[in-house]
């Protein structure tokens, strides 16, 4: 089991995946809440069966997988349905995060959770690492990445913790407003710092 759990978070299009990929290249185990969220509703899971029971077979693709776009459309405009879905999924995701964190074997591990601050999951981690980006760059990158309209991206940003709230919860910050070399250098510095913390606690 890893001696240190680093909670990685940041707003939409802040660069969390790029950062976690850089840590992975340094041999660090990554536990990704987004990946787990897909796994707990994969074909044949109790999670998917519960969603079908609630919303009907129309929620499935022809391959009997979850139609995420359809589900998103249903719950996005209906708070009661969104609350029901969160009540189903959050415990399943949290359980998997705990199991995977407990079985990590690198000196420290990264638990990547987009809504770490919003869902008050700080208790699951030793330190919180925030990938910080200014909102204008965030909007520009999200539109380019997701091919979405600006209004949709702005509504997602508004539904997440503010930049100020996220930074207030941070133990460590990576500023992602330059190129990949700049980002990589920050990751390497933090990697060394986390290894030092682990070694001190041995």
Describe the overall structure:
The structure is a single chain. The chain has 202 residues and is α/β, with parallel strands linked by helices. It has two domains: 1-28 and 108-193, P-loop containing nucleotide triphosphate hydrolases (Rossmann fold), CATH 3.40.50; 35-105, no CATH class. It is built from nine helices and five strands; from the N terminus they run βαβααααββαααβα. The chain has helices at residues 16-25, 33-39, 46-55, 68-76, 79-102, 135-146, 150-159, 163-168, 180-201, and strands spanning 4-9, 29-32, 108-112, 127-132, 172-175. The protein has a five-stranded parallel beta sheet, sandwiched between helices. α6 (135-146) crosses α7 (150-159). The protein is globular and about 55 Å long. The mean pLDDT is 93.
Summarize this structure as a short list of keywords or feature phrases:
202 residues, alpha/beta, Rossmann fold, 2 domains, 5-stranded parallel β-sheet, 5 strands, 54% helix
Question: Secondary-structure map with pairings?
Answer:
Elements: E1 4-9, H1 16-25, E2 29-32, H2 33-39, H3 46-55, H4 68-76, H5 79-102, E3 108-112, E4 127-132, H6 135-146, H7 150-159, H8 163-168, E5 172-175, H9 180-201
Parallel strand pairs: 1-3, 1-4, 2-3, 4-5
Helix pairs in contact: 6-7
